[in-house]
Fold these 2 entries.
Entry 1:
Amino acid sequence: MESDDLTRAYIGARPRSAALAGRARGFFAARGATHFSRVMAPFRPYIVRAQGARKWDADGHEYVDYVMGHGALILGHSHPAVIEAIGAQSRLGLHYGDSHPLEVEWAELIRALMPAAERIEFFASGQEANQMGIRLARVATGRKRLLKFKYNYHGWADELAGAGTAGALEDHITTIGANDLELLERELASGTYACALIEGGGGRLSGRVPTDPDFFRAMPGLCERYGTLLLLDEVVTGFREAAGGWQSVVGIRPDLTSVGKAAGGGMGCGALLGRADLLAALSPDAPPGRGVLHGGTWNAVPVTCAAGVAACGLYQDGAPQRAANAAAAQLRQQANTSLRRAGLPARLYGRSICHIYLGAIERETDADPPVSDTARLVDPGAAARYQRLELQLLTRGIATTRGEVFTLSAAHSSADIALTVEALTASVGAMVDEGML
Ligand SMILES: Cc1ncc(COP(=O)(O)O)c(C=O)c1O
């Protein structure tokens, strides 16, 4: 497909991005990209500006953006309150390497959102919060093993990445399918797991592969029965699904919760929240042999805290979350109606993050996947289709994650959605015409 008409036209209309991509390939081994989800043939557009639900590339093309900072930007790009807070703090200093008022304010706002946050620890990224959660669980339980769930993503580091990533440690890890309570109980009953780590909202960006809410509801009780701690990964869902995150949606109180992305309002961050007795291991007063070291040059940096305080202040009343959820519902409903009317084999499903399925439709529903076999939702054999859709959509001014994911924000308007529905219907139609679907 590299040299077909569509690809040639895409490259021809983007000479500046093409030149940058050429230079990038000399540095960045992933075909010039700096993140696995930014890898694309021939290249993703080089973005120079973003505002609200839109972003613009180096060649002047405008896109309705559904990448939204890999899910971080529930408020949309460059929200004025966040930009103002970053600007004001940067004039006072970027990094004091010291305690400062904003870290306390940010922690207070996070606790107001998630009451399970008896204690909070800040990190540079979401995966660091997960790593610390696992370590604290090991210290508290005296066990090593980690129970994970198929299709869940928690970061690229050792043990988080696990099977399939060369060089990653897989010691002490078992991965099982979610939604099978008997299997979960059998594993937990072995009495060997320090912690069960699961992605809030479902597997992969809040539910490309959905997890039954009742599975989440059963987890705290089962984990407690067998002495395993529950670490809920809310790096995506934290403050996105609802003001109180996924745990407030399903009504559970995990032992430990990781957040990131939206918590920082667009600045890189992570935080581990949870039971005071578990986070007490981070204190220098922890008993000998039970203390956990935590450094990190970028923990609670003042500019990050300023953005976090501004954003988390806006999350408190749930208005941005309701707006993003409503925009997403509108997109799913209108896109699926349009695709169905045109007889096209594609449907959107999900919540504030919408996923698309390309292929024969078994059932019509805007919330759940249109097929029952979950393996088909993440079929590596279908990757070329989604890559083609990514290119088709970019050509029509719509930026998604890998042609698979549409992440909504409070900034997405009815006009953005109308444009998207038209572009999506035309893109899928073009793929049928070219024999890709
Ligand atoms: C559910 C989930 N957990 C953890 C992470 C890792 O967060 P970060 O990229 O900030 O390290 C991600 C990143 O996409 C994620 O989707």
Note: The longest helix spans residues 319-341.
Entry 2:
Amino acid sequence: MGRGVDRLLADFGHELPSIPQPPAKERDPRLFAPMSRRGERRPLRGWSPASAPVSVWRMAADQAPVLWPLVSAPGLPPRGAQMGIDHFSGASMYADPNGWVLDPAIPVSNPNIFMFGKPGQGKSATVKAFCLRMMGFGYRTLVVGDPKDEYEPLCRALGVAPIAIGQGLDARINPLAFGPLGANWDRLGRDEAQRRAGIVFSRWLTLIRGLVGSQKVGDRPVPFGPSEEKVVDTALKALTGHAAGNSVLTETTIPHLWRALDEPTAELIEACHYASRQHFLDETRLLRDALGILVHGTLRGLFDDYTTIDLDWAAPIQSLSLSRLEGLGDEAVGMALLCLNSWGRAMRETAEPGDMRIVVRDESWKQLRLGLEAVKSFDADLRLSRRDGDIQFAIAHKPSDLLTAGDAGSQASAIAKDMLHLADTKILLGQDQAVADELEHLLGLGPIATEIVTDWARQAPGRALWVVGELMAKVATWLHPAEAALAWTNAKLEGALP
Ligand SMILES: Nc1ncnc2c1ncn2[C@@H]1O[C@H](COP(=O)(O)OP(=O)(O)OP(=O)(O)O)[C@@H](O)[C@H]1O
Ligand SMILES: [Mg+2]
């Protein structure tokens, strides 16, 4: 060992200055007596993995945070659209409905979303932000019916001209179009042609059933039972040439169908087993009158001719603006939504792999209110989404909107109630206290979750409880200033003020 520098210098008579040391502090007495790793060597002592007895508590998931407020549930994985802050975990909240379906750790089995919220709470703004942010992941958006034309600024910002539908405008949509399934029909093998025909005819029947069943005689819906179905199916097969075994089918329209039933051919009467022409006309009067209203009534000039618009399916967003129908009443808007849904479904029937869409149904309650058949048609769309990977995003004011389809206990209200299970993700924006009961009973939210919706979420637009399967996130959606400008829907109100 050598000498240190100070010692070396001292040997030659140089003293280095030293820093005065503070007096040593008295040590605090030990709080815990030192203990060997094996514990005390006495009876009933020693080492134990848990020093305190484990007590068992039973409580609902929404009560647990009261006792353990600092323990947060595992959040959703950071994949997909970053929506805002999850106030449960304090982290960012990401939405990725298809990713959630594929992730076994997340208890959802479909990518559909139902969103509920009082008017003005930011439902549409949240959808717009979600769609925009999902575009980065390859999703395109189809807004099947925009009753307030509020998606137009978003479309324009993305360089897409929205399509307006209304009386006196050129745009027509034929809900009885074949869609992409009709392409190259003459080159199809027999089996494939039959398969496609099955899909197309069943879609049309669902639509006609919805349109006819939405109309009322007194307060009862116009019936559409097996006899009506047979008549419509037979007429459609005759009109398209399917009955004659044609290899190329002809597109037909609702007025053609109406005329075929109004002036039935002998073949149609016979194929449907009616004794005479008069018998046919007597039995199908209600059906013909209901179809006649579509041809001559409020929706005339909208869905009664061949499609004139040419949607660019590669565009990031497509939206069909419907504000011009507003004056025709909610029922007409609901029927228009039915026609658009059927047509939109047709357009998606041969979606290429990787062609991922978010199908937005804003104000969907208008369609659901039409009755049982309209609910069934909606239900069919939701069921298909698992197959083709579309994210169906339906917006309504409150969960009980789904039940206005029929009287309590009716088939319509039962189907509508079940429909809630077809969307495993629910986004619940602010609601009034009066809706608390239905949040608990229809959605099974506990009191704490219900209070988040009726209190916390009410305090600012965009705040919502996201229920993803059984996971919950208390999310405040943040809009970028550019998004906020596109989602600004208070312009009219602002303009009305002095
Ligand atoms: N996350 C948010 N942050 C800030 N402002 C928001 C947010 N979400 C919505 N807003 C604002 O609140 C207003 C109402 O939003 P929005 O139109 O989306 O409500 P809504 O629930 O769709 O209403 P309605 O039921 O009438 O269609 C808009 O002007 C929008 O800019
Ligand atoms: Mg809205």
Note: The chain has a mean pLDDT of 86.
